[in-house]
Design goal:
This protein is an alpha/beta fold. The radius of gyration is 34 Å and the shape is globular. Strands 23, 24, 25, 28, 29 and 30 form a six-stranded mixed beta sheet that branches. It has a four-stranded parallel beta sheet with strand order 2-1-21-22, with helices on one face. It has 30 helices and 34 strands. It binds one RNA strand through helix 10, strand 11, strand 15, helix 15 and strand 30.
Length: 929
RNA sequence: GCCCGAAUGGCGGAAUUGGUAGACGCGCUACAUUCAGGGUGUAGUAACCGCACGGUUGUGCAAGUUCGAGUCUUGUUUCGGGCACCA
């Protein structure tokens, strides 16, 4: 009988579900392996073929690892809080929880059809109170800790309070929002409120006024990685800058460790590079420039102020001929002279109110205004003018710079525009033409560093400023703190209440703080977030609760930990489960999370590491980025003004316009003309100009989208070809990490392979036909070459070449008409990671249901001898099967009786009667430690 | 502008350590089975010259190292990705 994939796949999926074969428990007799996919946000559109690509790869690897004797944790869940469900709720009034549940149901259905080996008993959603309780709990811990820069780790805030009471800020260096100092006496005299306000300056989760990306259309703030070119990633609305009181995570405190940690993980270089750039470490100096006392009536006042700058080029300080402040700089109003005030105020007002889009729009346009004030270059002792300009950013360094026009192109352009002096301080350039921006060379016109190499000069200048007491060498990071408040409904409520406007944490035993019901999912009339609409949104004592909710990345930052112990009601996860599962060994997902989720998660994990909750500092040991699957659109060509369509090869002879056509009515670029006529009433009476009797469509690679009619739904492909074929074809498309267009054309090849594999076990009349004879050396050779190749490919995640190897193997066996059990049986195990359904069925037909697998040494090839062997139970298609090494000098019956006497074998086989013993090459299931 | 990565037939892509380039699949061509279609099987398929034996060229482009380069070095072009007034 021909292979009936519909029946077989349904049968085994049901079997796996009913018998819970993929349920995973801690098992100290086996080494652990944790394979994780980036869990999906369940959108209304369901899965398209791009989504499962990574899931299939990780599933293959998980199954492969199980065969190798590892205890594999392979869970799945949903990132369920988020904007789309809320936007939908605003439009329709339907509660986001309902939309989310429906979408999840659809996702689950689609995933089940692909035959994944997830342990679904561990599933949870980030919107489950049982889960977000621990998101809230972690937030409280962040609030209760500060970052000690000397110890390079988080410490309890209570320790800081003790130090403050004993010796003030004199000797301690906590990471802070603003540098402040006070003595123990001053601290002890402060009121409780004042103390709490000061502590916010140090907490890892703190509340502060900050410039945020405000999206008026969405009515919420967004994190930097949620904004691209001044446009919101979700929805594509303009984003502006606004000063607001927000919860913020002090991610920047971990900048150095986030950077160093990259050296210890196995990620692609490009991904590490992205994170490195995002963290943006630069070494330089912090230097104070005193303001000149000579200018105007502010002279007395000015002597109190200095302009603090950060520079990576202290060696060029002799060329600093002016200074620039960002428009947000607090010094501006204090130093601007009356004559300049009007102009400055206007400039600052305009700059502050410009949206990010507008600002980004004219990066090249030079603008700025003189404040009337002068600073003093501490080394040349000359007065240099102070400007305000947009090209200096508030969020980086100190928001002020010393401008060295000779060696910085932006300063150069600014100096030329305002006619400011340009002093060359590094030899080699032509500063009449352009700025000479090199990082090496000889210093000139530079007082005591003249003649030195640039690097040496920088060192000497740093020593000198330190000596005078106006600065020091320092390291600056571009990584900014993460704004953690969202003015939305569908997110985790903060476990925070306010007393006299000071925030306090709820007691841990009152968690979870449940998301309240509201009448509408919109902000209130007074502009407060939706939670302000909730009845009695206050504590038992009547204190006001926080109305913002947490952002999408809150729930996804620590979800991988919860899978270890998902039903624990007392803890996030138990120490024991964390000790066993440690961290994620293999994480599979898209690069788009490089500067978002993957930074936040690492931060989250490092914090939990500091407080002793997790045993590994890095959460994801190896990471694979599956490439995006692009769409492959098909086109028909209509002759202008007619309803006649020209085939691709002839279109150049006519004046045609291309029209997207649904890829579901095109096969191998050949249009199904009848289906086309039915596709849209517009085309009902279409006529065609054909080539060789066929209508050939054109094609192009584009983003997969509904409007381009190029979305390929996995369900349709499974219906037509089966899950095993889909799984193998997605792998066959190309290297997992490469972006590639989806092209259904090749799927026939894999489908053919599956049928061919099936036919190996059957005769010409499709009757079961397996031969028990001893295989020939040539046949063994085919098998063992394949085992070797697949093992190799699996280990280096080269799934596309592995599929090729299977095809070659089956072609060769089929050429030799080889239907020998001893060849096909091991192949079935080998292929089961890729095509689990057909292999499970064949295994069953082979009569191997309750079987013991023996591994032997193939006699003909000593290369397959492996020195260290272990007797492990192996898991194959979810069922644990006993694996025992088979010495060459014993007969099968001898081994059979030996194994049946073993206590362990009875345990492993769970009381089942062992019917038979199967011999396979040991390499397939050997554990290599 | 800066930082990564890639470039191989009509197409997707192989080539694991510098050692027969083009595996495997799609598509295409021919033949067999068949009323036909589908399916299956067999043979061919980088380009050029040649009936054929065979020969020449060939991994974006230009040089170099080497007995030998798709692979290493330098320069260059194009495409993709990241960052983007980051001082």
């Amino acid at each position: 009988m021909e292979y009936n994939f519909r029946e077989v796949e349904k049968k085994w999926q049901q079997y796996w579900r009913e018998k819970n074969v993929y349920k995973t428990e801690i098992d100290y007799s086996k080494p652990k392996y944790y394979v994780l996919d980036m869990f999906p946000y369940p959108s209304g559109a369901g899965l398209h073929v791009g989504h499962p690509l990574g899931y299939i790869a990780s599933d293959i690897y998980a199954r492969y690892k199980r065969q190798k004797g590892f205890n594999v944790l392979h869970p799945m869940g949903y990132d369920a809080f988020g904007l789309p469900a809320e936007q939908y709720a605003i439009q329709t009034g339907q509660h986001p929880a309902i939309t989310t549940s429906q979408n999840i149901e659809r996702y689950r259905e689609q995933m089940d059809k692909i035959g994944f080996s997830y342990d679904w008993s561990r599933e949870f959603r980030t919107c489950d109170p049982d889960y977000y309780k621990w998101t809230q709990w972690t937030f409280i811990q962040l609030f209760n800790h500060y970052y000690c820069q000397d110890a390079q780790r988080a410490r309890p805030i209570s320790e800081l309070e003790e130090v403050f009471a004993m010796e003030g800020t004199a000797r301690i260096r906590p990471a802070a929002t603003v540098e402040i100092s006070f003595t123990a006496d001053e601290w002890n005299r402060k009121t409780e409120e004042e103390k709490q306000t000061i502590l916010l300056n140090y907490r890892l989760a703190y509340l502060a006024d900050t410039w945020v990306n405000w999206c008026p259309k969405l009515g919420t703030v967004l994190a930097n990685d949620e904004v691209v070119n001044g446009i919101s990633v979700r929805g594509g609305y303009p984003v502006e800058r606004k000063l607001m009181k927000q919860w913020i995570l002090r991610v920047s405190a971990y900048a150095e460790r986030l950077l160093q940690g990259l050296n210890t993980v196995d990620w692609s270089d490009s991904l590490k590079e992205i994170q490195k750039n995002w963290i943006g470490k630069s070494e330089g100096a912090f230097i104070q420039f005193a303001l000149s006392k000579n200018n105007s009536q502010f002279s007395i006042l000015n002597s109190q102020f200095s302009i603090d700058i950060f520079t990576t080029r202290p060696d060029t300080i002799f060329g600093a001929t002016f200074m620039v402040l960002c428009p947000e700089h607090e010094l501006i109003e204090k130093i601007t002279t009356p004559e300049q005030k009007k102009e400055v105020d206007e400039y600052v007002f305009k700059a502050k109110n410009r949206t990010e889009v507008e600002r980004a729009g004219d990066v090249k346009k030079i603008s700025g205004v003189f404040t009337g004030a002068y600073a003093i270059n501490p080394f040349t002792n000359t007065e240099i003018p102070v400007y305000v300009a947009e090209y200096v950013l508030a969020g980086y360094g100190t928001g002020a710079i010393m401008a060295v026009p000779a060696h910085d192109s932006r300063d150069y352009a600014f100096a030329k525009y305002f006619n400011l002096p340009v002093i060359e301080v590094i030899k080699g350039g032509d500063i009449d033409e352009e700025a000479y921006e090199v990082k090496e060379g000889i210093c000139i016109n530079s007082g005591f560093i003249t003649g030195m190499e640039v690097k040496e000069g920088a060192k000497v200048v740093i020593e000198k400023v330190k000596e005078i007491g106006i600065g020091y060498g320092t390291i600056n990071y571009r990584l900014r703190d993460a704004i953690f408040s969202r003015q939305r409904y569908w997110g985790e409520p903060f476990p925070v209440y306010f007393k006299n406007d000071i925030p306090y944490m709820l007691p841990e035993d009152e968690l979870p703080l449940l998301l309240p019901e509201v009448d509408k999912f919109l902000p209130t009339e007074t502009g407060e977030p939706p939670l302000a609409r909730a009845q009695n949104w206050q504590t038992k004592e009547g204190n006001k609760l926080e109305c913002s909710t947490m952002p999408g990345f809150a729930g996804s930052s620590g979800y991988y930990l919860r899978y270890m112990d998902p039903h624990n009601e007392k803890e996030y996860f138990s120490k024991e489960t964390n000790q066993y599962w440690q961290n994620v060994d293999l994480y599979v997902g898209g690069t788009e999370h490089a500067t978002g989720h993957l930074i936040y998660s690492r931060f989250w994990n490092k914090f939990l590491y500091d407080i002793g909750l997790v045993c590994k500092e890095e959460p994801f040991q190896k990471l694979i980025n599956q490439g995006m699957i692009q769409g492959r659109s098909n086109f028909v060509y209509r002759i202008q003004g007619t309803n006649t369509f020209v085939s691709f090869g002839l279109k150049d002879n006519y004046d045609v316009s291309p029209i997207h056509v649904d890829i579901n009515i095109v096969q191998n670029d050949i249009l199904n003309m009848d289906a086309f006529k039915q596709w849209s009433p517009d085309f009902a009476d279409a006529e065609f100009i054909l080539e060789n009797g066929k209508y050939i469509c054109g094609w192009e690679v584009e983003k997969m989208s509904k409007s381009k009619y190029n979305v390929q739904n996995p369900d349709d492909l499974i219906e037509k070809y089966g899950a095993d074929t889909l799984r193998m074809y997605e792998m066959f498309l190309g290297p997992i990490e490469l972006a590639k267009p989806w092209d259904t054309n090749g799927i026939e090849g894999v489908s053919r392979f599956i049928r061919k594999f099936w036919r190996l076990f059957h005769d010409a009349n499709n009757e079961w036909n397996i031969c028990e004879a001893e295989p020939s050396p040539d046949e063994y050779k085919i098998l063992h070459r394949t085992i070797q190749k697949i093992e190799n490919d699996n280990e280096r995640f080269s799934f596309n070449t592995a599929v090729s190897a299977f095809m070659i193997c089956v072609n060769e066996l089929s050429d030799n008409k080889c239907n020998k059990r001893k060849i096909l049986e091991p192949l079935t195990i080998l292929l089961s990671a890729y095509a689990p359904h057909i292999c499970e069925e064949l295994w069953y037909l082979l009569g191997n249901e309750d079987s013991v697998i023996f591994a032997n040494y193939p006699e003909f090839n000593p290369n397959y001898l492996v020195e260290n062997t272990f007797n492990y139970p192996v898991s194959f298609n979810g069922k644990t099967r006993f694996f025992k090494e088979f010495p060459i000098d014993k007969s099968i019956s001898e081994m059979e009786s030996e194994i049946l006497q073993l206590e362990e074998s009875k345990k492993w086989i769970e009381g089942k009667v062992v019917k038979k013993v199967i011999i396979v090459p040991k390499k397939i299931i050997n554990v290599v430690l």
